[in-house]
Amino acid sequence: MATFSLLPGSVALITLTNPPVNALSAAVRAGIVQAVQRSVEDPKVKSVVICGQNGRFCGGADIREFAGPMSGPPLVPLIHAIEALDKPVVAAIEGLALGGGLELALGCHYRIAHTTALLGLPEVTLGLLPAAGGTQRLPRLAGLPAALDLITTGRHISGTEALELGIVDQVTDGSALDIALEFAKSIVGRPLNTRRLSTLPCRCPTDIDNLLDRFMVQVRQRARGALAPVACVGALRAAATLPYAQGLRKERELMDTLFNSGQARALQYAFFSQRVVGKWTLPSGARWDNTTSRTISTAAVIGLGTMGRGIAVALALAGMSVVAVETQEKQLSEARQMVPAMLQREAGRRGLDTAPGVISFCSSLQDVSEVELVIEAVFEDMALKLQLFRQLSAVCKPDTLLCSNTSGLDIDQLAAATQRPGLVVGMHFFAPAHIMKLLEVVCGTRSSPETVATVMQLGKRMGKVSVAVGNCPGFVGNRMLKPYTEQANFLLEEGAMPEQVDKVLEEFGFPMGVFRMSDLSGLDVGWRIRKAAGLTGPGVEPTRTRQGRRYSPLPDQMCEAGRLGQKTGRGWYQYDGPGGRVARSDPWVQTFLDAYRARHNLAARVIAAEEILERCLYSLINEGFKILQDGMAAGPEDIDAIYVFGYGWPRHRGGPMFHAGQVGLARVLEKLEHYQQLHPDVAPMKPSMLLRRLVAAGSPPIQKWRELIHRERVHSQL
Ligand SMILES: CC(C)(COP(=O)(O)OP(=O)(O)OC[C@H]1O[C@@H](n2cnc3c(N)ncnc32)[C@H](O)[C@@H]1OP(=O)(O)O)[C@@H](O)C(=O)NCCC(=O)NCCSC(=O)C[C@@H](O)CCCCCCCCCCCCC(=O)O
């Protein structure tokens, strides 16, 4: 709702009241309509201030309402009524003015903001555009280039930047509300014509067409198939070239095409998934809201390779005092050089003069004896990690948490090597660890709820999307990646080329296809893991069936040929040299694949894009269902957040589990059955029991899956 109060000095104060972000729900909109009406009718009211309760102006339209039929007073005429008032209206922007919240403020005659308030039009991140006049008023106020930037990226800006762009009239470090109230009294009687943005011309440079065309090219490239950014440019073109009323009609027309699109649904689902994963639950019943966490202020990182360096920087950026340990002298001296520069650069990127935390370097494990939490980031080798965990258990204070950055090894085994298994947990970061948002928090069977809560909380402080997952080989992300890459390798055996597979995946929206990705991360990473698992190496028969399953030795053979990817200048593609970044097709790979197929009597066939996509994605999705079935992820949102934030899954497709729902669970099942019949030796194509159960239950919406999984588990049907 919204409250109305008449304050001394004849100022009407309208307060939006809908915690926690004062979203513009139907009740709030109705409240504003009534309060505006009172302001019009009451002769005692000489000016109006609009603010939000609890120091938060407004988080925009109520996103939850978009899932059902829209009711209540619409926003566009409401904002027009405010703009048309002949009494001055001032927006007092504290905390945030986002989306419809900023559009409401743009309908006011003046805007006063706190310097640290967040302003922006993030609709594009929800698959929408600012359709309450935002695409028409903002370019009239801040100019077309600034509006293009803000509306197509959805980025938030501070009150200070908003002042520089002319979006607000004044900023303060004190109370924006107090200043707004005083200001509102002082401007009674001033003419308002120039303050009504809809009546002003758009502020455009002379070469509008040229600017918009160039911008559209960039936006299409960045969007990777997302519709909303392109529609935003369309709406801004209308603002620049048409009178306001026509521009507004175009804005609405474009919004109508987006509003019910699968992409908008996917992006809104992704918004809520990100929040759902913070509300973690463990199979034991421990939850985010019934478990206390410890606040960590001192931490250590052991091993200063790429991952360790990034983790140390991420911890320092979160205000931690970090001890960075590396026993190899060369690596330590490199880290001493690189890490402070990384820290400074990242702090600068976040608008800080210096990082809030500090990092000290040393070469001895004894130096971590006093810290509260240790993150091990040494080489991915179980024997090495076990030895380290034994040492840490002896060296550290009894209540120090011991965490491993392993990307898939057994956390329970590491915990068993210590005298404190309850304090052991996995913290699986993604490279570069100071930039990538995802953190898999791997809960071992003996990890205590307090340990999990503490690490989840720490992840949040580090700005990560932390997802609690179970302890199984590869955890969630890498476990699902395995059948996906395996399937891509099988496709090469059957006749596809790496660039063909990559093109299909990139057109789907991944920033990189599986082979380009593999070249980037290094083919030797998986090779080492497969060697450790006894799947390849000296003495292993070079057949296409290993350990009872179809196996493609292609990636092993690439490694044996010294083609490790970008680092050697050759992999699935060729590069300008070691460390090169630009991938080019390599005739060597064609010859290599031809020879391989000939050796194994495999006839190359033409493989359609549809088959490539279905086999890669559905095998990954099927593994996701198995993960849910095994209880290794609490719900589909967890898997989807992992894939969106850690594996480049296009956000406008929600995540793999959401995508399965969009395609139709019955269709995914049917396709898996089809490919399984064709390739019965490929275990990951065998449809999971949970997928079958969901289809049998009538393919309920994704929001209902948790409930069904819980019910089926109780009845031991999974
Ligand atoms: C605001 C934040 C930055 C706050 O972050 P913080 O970290 O402090 O907190 P949380 O993110 O954890 O959030 C707390 C809590 O609040 C929930 N929440 C946040 N924002 C909203 C919201 N806008 N609506 C609903 N709920 C919200 C959040 O989910 C948490 O609750 P939970 O229970 O999950 O813990 C941050 O939250 C944030 O970034 N929020 C989103 C801000 C945003 O994106 N705003 C824009 C919204 S879209 C919009 O405003 C659209 C406008 O342009 C209006 C358009 C006019 C509409 C016209 C429609 C007509 C079209 C009809 C076409 C029909 C066609 C046809 O059918 O034919």
Structural features, described:
The protein folds into 3 domains: 2-260, 2-enoyl-CoA Hydratase, Chain A, domain 1 (Alpha-Beta Complex), CATH 3.90.226.10; 288-470, NAD(P)-binding Rossmann-like Domain (Rossmann fold, 3-Layer(aba) Sandwich), CATH 3.40.50.720; 496-599, Orthogonal Bundle (N-(1-d-carboxylethyl)-l-norvaline Dehydrogenase, domain 2). It starts with a strand and ends with a helix. Helix 1 (26-41) links the parallel strand 2 and strand 3 (47-52). The model has no long low-confidence stretch (mean pLDDT 96). It has 718 residues and is of the alpha/beta class. The chain is globular. The strands form 4 sheets. Strands 12-11-10-13-14-15-16-17 form an 8-stranded mixed β-sheet, sandwiched between helices. Helix 4 (134-142) crosses helix 9 (228-241). The chain has 28 helices and 19 strands.
